[in-house]
Amino acid sequence: MAGDQRKFQEAMKHADRFSQAGRWAEAMKAYRFALAEFSNSEAAIMGYGRAALLANQIEYARRAYMQVLKINPTNLDALGAMADIQERSGQLDAAAETYLRVGNVHASMENYDTAIDSWTRATKLASGQVNAHLKIADVLAKQGKIRPAAREYLTLAGIYQRRGDIAQATKHVEAAQLLVADDPGIAAAFESLNIGAPIDPQKIGEAPAAPEQTDTFDNEFLTDDGFDDDDLFGIEDFEAANRPTGGLIESARQDALATLANLIFEDADNPHTMTIMQGLDLQSNGNVTEAIDVYHRAINAGAHQAAMYFNLGFLYREQGQLNEAAAMLERSATEPAFKVSSLFILGLINQAIGKLEAAAKYFVEALKALDLQTVSGQRYYALAQTYDNLISSYTDQINADKLNKFATTLTRFFANSDWEQRVYEARQRMNKVAEEKDTMSLAEFLETPETEVVITALALTSEYIKSTMLSTASEECLRAIQKAPSFLPLHSRLAEIMLKQDRADQAITKYLYIANVYQMRGQPDQSVNIYQKILKLAPMDVTVRAKLIDLYISLDNGGQALRQYITLADSYYQLAQVDRALEKYNEALRLSSAGGDTENLRVEILSRTADIYTQRFDWTNAASAYDELLKIEPDNERFLRRLVELYLRQNRVSQATAMLDKLIGIYQRQSPLQVLELLKELASFYPDNLQLRQRLAIAYAQNNMKQQAIAEYDALGEMQLEKGFRDQAIQTIQAIINLGPDDIEGYRRLLGQISGG
Q: How far is CA 245 from the centre of its chain?
């Protein structure tokens, strides 16, 4: 039935107005009114999803975008939003698949560069995304970018190599070979396959420089031109003068000025350009106040370059107008080219005005933006999580002395003209001394004044451990800890050495200390890693496992918390502390009922509690557990069978009969003989149960076992008469007569006697 177009348009108008005002809850309500008229309106569902997302109603947003994608599977806005939601929710594999779809849609529209960006995002979110890598390789090859394509094929080969699929790995090395047959990286890849070493895609070099094309005139001229090798026209001097120099801030300032100056070549006809040129001229002559006014005229007229905002922010800061500087730098921070420098200056501004919490946040965000450029794969996500925790740690436990020291360290670091090279060198050194899941951050590297000491110590102790020089490794580690006692990777290394020295108890004590400090610093993920290490050493340590459960609950990781609860309860059971085991199973059940996809774990927990209650002859609680299990899996034969037996043991005949009939119905569809075997077994244990005996007689008859059926009915009839169930006995005798027994007249006389009283 068609909706009311007028009501729909009115609701959409209100939804738009609420959205513009940022009143997301009201906008969601208005969109619902619109959808009441036209439930499949793509625009209304998209609007609802966007409002829900901005109102932090993630689940509603997810449902909305799913509905849009049912209507239009290629809606790029919905796909992008869905990928973002999945990524923020930690569903990285699902997000990767969605980005793969986004790339496919762009590729179908021949937006190949955008498609490659989306596929690359998929590979970063989930390792081993072979489809995404393959699509990237194919498109790069199609675009003529044969060397990047070859590297991508070798990346694929490396993935298959790690999976042990050498045939597929070889196939992709051969695909790369078709593109760059003579490149030494191809031979290196084949060699890696032969010896079992990791394939390195980066061994595919850049394209060799094309040889200079010379003719006879060139050759004659170059033999002896009569000049020396000086740069006669001053080109090298000009380039050197205009090349960015200095540290982070200065090079960003020069980049901003160069970008603005180049507008004259890129967009000379634009009226904003001449205004900007006027501002640059004033700025170069030291007329900063007038330059700022001119730049604002350009902005008001529509010039919104990030370089403009950064330049203005820099000028305002020099003038001491810090609030105005911050406003401009907030805008330039949205542009990747100026993000790190803008965030760093924002940190300095907030430090100067005493907003220490904001300053810490900007400093760490600047380092995060910079540091994430130096890693990929699993390290990327581990590092991103580390920075998220660091931001919380800095802002929750702000310390003026610590922040000022950190700011001074950053300022000195970024003042160096080779700061970029230093960043990459620092990353290489950090990666050598840290496990991939414990990726060290540049913030931690710079925060520690004794960075050189600790990194050297970690490298040295690693070599000493490999050479089994454990005492020397321990001494080196202790010396470094004295100089940098708060640097936890050193403590972790010492625990590792203790383990190799068979000092497990001391290692566990050290690991517990490390985990507690990580928690105090607001880095729960690191604590989780440490607790997992302890439990590998002492799997029966119930105290540590309980702490790990609390951590998982604080991280909203209910699934992992439940798994740890099961292991904890099992540990208590193995320690013969059955009551504690039941207590932990019941705590886990309460946690699982809080929501989430935990049905499989609930089944596991309930099954174990039911087994324990059964072993303790606690039929009532055992039956309750199986009753809960049946709510999850109503047709589970094992659960039904257990309930039948438990109800029979408690003489709860009606409940036992109901469960039995349901089980018989399931068996009847599978095999009637299965019904017969079940009833024979139960009747042997409970021979006085009339319901069982009656169903056994029926089962004999259904399986054409006439004599056994008559014998069972005979026994049933006698039991019914003994108990005074005359009407039931009459029905039983009639059932015998219907089977045609040899002495049918005798049964008829008996039936007449009973019927006559």
A: 40
Long-range contacts of 494-503 (CB under 8 A, 24+ apart): 496/465, 497/461, 497/465, 497/470, 497/473, 498/474, 499/537, 500/465, 500/470, 501/470, 501/474
**pLDDT tier, 241 (very low <50, low <70, confident <90, very high otherwise):** very low
Residue 181 CB coordination number (10 Å): 10
Nearest to 731 by CA among 741, 723, 742, 721: 721
Are residues 287 and 189 both part of a single domain? no
Q: Same domain, yes or no, for 184 and 172?
A: yes
Indicate left, alpha or beta for 247 from its phi (over 0: left) and psi (-120 to 50: alpha). beta
**Cα distance between residue 185 and residue 183, in whole Å:** 5
**559 CB burial (10 A radius; 0-12, 13-18, 19+):** middle
Check if the beta carbon of residue 337 is closer than 8 Å to that of residue 255: yes
The alpha carbon torsion through 325, 331, 335, 336 (nearest 10 deg) reads 50
DSSP string, 481-517: HHH-TT-HHHHHHHHHHHHHTT-HHHHHHHHHHHHHH
519 lies in which domain range? 451-535
Say how many domains are in the chain. Answer: 4
For residues 160 and 271, give the distance between their C-alpha atoms in angstroms, rounded to a whole number: 56
pLDDT of 452: 63
For residue 590, give the H/E element and its range: helix 578-592
User: What is the rounded average pLDDT of the residues 189-195?
Assistant: 82
- Has residue 173 got a pLDDT over 70? yes
pLDDT at 610: 82
Q: Is 259 found in the same domain as 136?
A: no
Q: What is the mean pLDDT of residues 671-690?
A: 83
Who has greater pLDDT, 163 or 525?
163
Q: What gap in Å lies between CA 136 and CA 129, rounded to an integer?
A: 11
3-state secondary structure 434-487: CCHHHCCCHHHHHHCCCHHHHHHHHHHHHHHHHCCCHHHHHHHHHHHHHHCCCC
Are residues 365 and 420 located together in one domain of the fold?
Answer: yes
Question: pTM for this structure?
Answer: 0.42
pLDDT of residue 234: 34
Residue bearing the bigger pLDDT, 339 or 424: 339
Chain CA centroid to CA 740, Å: 71
- Rounded CA separation 360/400 (Å): 10
Of 675, 667, 704, nearest to 692 by C-alpha is: 675
Three-state secondary-structure class, residue 95: helix
